[in-house]
Amino acid sequence: MKIYTNLLTLFLFAFLASCSGTKQITVHDSESHITIDGSLSDWDTGASSLNDSDEIRYFATRQGDYLYVFVDVRSIYKDYSIRQMGMTVYLSNSEDNRRSVGIGYPAGTFNLLRQYPNAFNGFTTDLEWGRKPENIELMTELSKDLFSRVMIVERFDGGSRPEFGFVELSQVEIDGFEIATDTDRRLLSLEMKIPLDGGSLYNVKNEDLWIGFAIEPPVFRFREENQSMSPRQQTSMYGYGYGQRQPRQSARRTVPTQEDWFILRLR
User: Fold this and answer.
1) What is the largest CA-CA distance in the chain?
2) How far apart, in whole angstroms, are the C-alpha atoms of residue 245 and residue 243?
């Protein structure tokens, strides 16, 4: 396992592009059976592709009253980022409410830490938190739950502040909803089968959809803003030093969020 004091080593590489524009796609109707197993073997990848990227490819197709979604991670930097911060899929019939409900799978080790509020607060406010052996052990243990727990993100009444919940994988597989990854792959995959008849999770209809794929880091607000970060602390935060002393306030900047949004036109 990597030492968690160097968790942010690859973030600058992983987030050079933070948010793409919204692309409209007419969704392909599939006639072949798709097994939800984290593999693209059942997919017509040419007809269902949403984008063309060397980092993450997205696919979507419809079969009756179900939408099938696939995330194919192709970059080791994106893979590392998702394992830490999760991949959240948002889906809505409304642009205004497009971020109201999201399903995060894998949830990411950072997010799984939210189940322990005191530990999460220390992680996001104390530069030395990740250097303590007991915290390294906790993060290592949480990483073992990446594929057994699912994160549900909700924003109520149009608010911008999300609320997070975590459930076992089997608990979200209701109303025909299915989700899977292929753990034998070197890089991550995510496959979902989503009911389009008002299911319990997304509650969407078989009409045009907004779909978003997001990698969302927590906000780091480190204390003692009036002090400077030593080179050793800089290395702890980012995995390398900058060669000069930086105001600690600079560490308050959030790691950029990546959001890729598409409008799915259902004929």
Assistant:
1) 62
2) 7
Q: What angle separates helix 133-143 from helix 117-125, to the nearest 10 degrees? A: 110
Residues 6 or more apart in contact with residue 71 via CB below 8 angstroms: 56, 57, 58, 87, 89, 188, 189, 190, 191, 213
Q: Where are the beta strands (DSSP E) in the chain?
A: 23-26, 28-29, 56-63, 66-73, 88-92, 101-104, 149-154, 163-168, 178-180, 189-195, 209-215, 228-229, 246-247, 258-265
**How would residue 267 be classed by pLDDT, with cut points 50, 70 and 90?**
confident
Q: CA triplet 237, 240, 245: central angle to 5 degrees?
A: 75
Instruction: Give 4-265's CATH code, choosing from 2.60.40, 3.30.70, 1.10.150, 2.30.30.
Output: 2.60.40
DSSP strand pairing (101-104 vs 88-92): antiparallel
The ranges assigned to domains in the chain are: 4-265
Task: Kindly report the average pLDDT of the chain as a whole number.
Answer: 84
What pLDDT sits at residue 9?
43
Query: Does the pLDDT value for residue 164 go beyond 80?
Result: yes
